[in-house]
Design a protein that fits this description.
8-stranded antiparallel β-sheet, alpha+beta, 6 helices, single chain
Length: 278
């Protein structure tokens, strides 16, 4: 007998066929209120502690050896993103392993999954900046992986249109990788965004995208090729969003020229779903 832990059947949280079909057709699936209050509270507490820690640092970008976190600020000093908190911060580490999050990832891939990277995105009141239109795999295709990848987005605060919510273009994950270009001027974080000509070809009017708004504890799963972006936070309320980018366990980076650092391309390959049986 192996020493492998078995999760009770009542703890398994697979999607039904309708949910899986919707994810594959639309490129994303919303699960409102997926996190229980205690699960949400532990994340909020950990996130608030991290934000307080890095708000007091003058440098706009850097690495924190103690927490294994890489932080990025805007030029105005507003905190933008904290990367890799899932590796050492227990609340972040455990949340992605919850069966109701990990099991659907295994359904999506048909295999175990690992965390490719994670980031806590912060949009300060009045100052939170944009994420330009992009596909995540527009970045990741240069990291030596294929597109067997998906992300889990967890709202830690109320998310509104005025607060600069994400916009998804349903079905755009079927378009393949669109033309992207580097943008190092819009924000302090180098972005890899879809070209204007590609956007004009694919987005004829405002009817093609949906606003990803919701409440704390709402969770969204989305494909790595779905076209998305988010606007400036014009509201008086700051908000935080936790995103885990995950990949099929067999989809590990191969050798590339100038590989990116491990805070954005994690190379630990620790399965988060290996106790789930399809």
């Amino acid at each position: 007998m192996s020493g492998k832990k078995t999760i009770p059947s009542e703890a398994i949280a697979m999607w039904n066929s309708q949910q899986l079909d919707q994810y594959r057709e639309q490129g994303f699936l919303a699960q409102p209120g997926l996190l229980a209050q205690d699960e949400l509270s532990s994340l909020q507490t950990a996130a608030n502690e991290l934000v307080t820690r890095y708000e007091g640092i003058a440098e706009l970008t850097g690495d924190d050896a103690e927490n294994g976190v890489h932080y990025v600020k805007e030029n105005n000093g507003a905190l933008r993103s904290l990367f890799a908190a899932h590796r050492r911060i227990e609340a972040f580490r455990q949340t992605i392993r919850l069966p109701k999050i990990a099991d659907p990832l295994k359904q999506i891939f048909g295999n175990d999954a690992y965390v490719f990277h994670s980031k806590l995105n912060v949009k300060d009141a009045f100052e939170g900046a944009v994420w330009l239109w992009h596909q995540d795999y527009g970045y990741w295709q240069y990291d030596g992986v294929d597109d067997r990848m998906a992300s889990v987005l967890i709202m830690l605060d109320k998310t509104t249109i005025h607060g600069g919510c994400i916009l998804f273009v349903p079905g755009s994950h079927k378009w393949g990788v669109l033309d992207h270009q580097s943008d190092e001027k819009t924000t302090n974080y180098k972005q890899w965004c879809v070209t204007k000509s590609a956007l004009q070809e694919r987005i004829p009017d405002d009817s093609v995208y949906v606003s990803v708004v919701g409440e704390p504890g709402d969770v969204f799963f989305f494909d790595c090729n779905i076209l998305h972006g988010s606007g400036h936070n014009l509201s008086a309320t700051s908000r935080k969003t936790l995103i885990y980018a995950c990949a099929d366990l067999s989809n590990q980076p191969t050798g590339v020229d100038n590989p990116r650092p491990d805070w954005v391309v994690d190379r630990q390959f620790e399965p988060i779903t290996n106790e789930c049986v399809l």
